[in-house]
């Protein structure tokens, strides 16, 4: 499994034109540079004319899965991030610092169907896991995940 992850990581770098060729080094990769943008959605200076109407809307959807689990790991050295914020997942260290600021926040639930998922996420069943779900923001028209819009959830919606 580790070999497959490394191979996919190298292929992603290669497709983005990042490598140790002296032109664009791997260490110089910036946030979200390996992620693909939705080719059909409007992007200024890419597929929109100069005089485009700035009132055009971009429609996004947010979806979450509260059943995804990941067991505790001993350290980041044993299970490192290969692509730390370079594609679709948010940058892990900044996200971890943000999560520390919202640890005592009460769950905000306005949807009755979501209550069961949140109750399940906050039970003793979630002990021993670093991740209890995932959420992401996608293009509503085409379903492509946005750059740096996927995050891993700890204890429900938090």
Automatic annotation (TrEMBL):
Domain of life: Eukaryota
Pfam (any one): KDZ
InterPro entries, per database record: KDZ
Protein name: CxC2-like cysteine cluster KDZ transposase-associated domain-containing protein
Organism, as annotated: Gymnopus androsaceus JB14
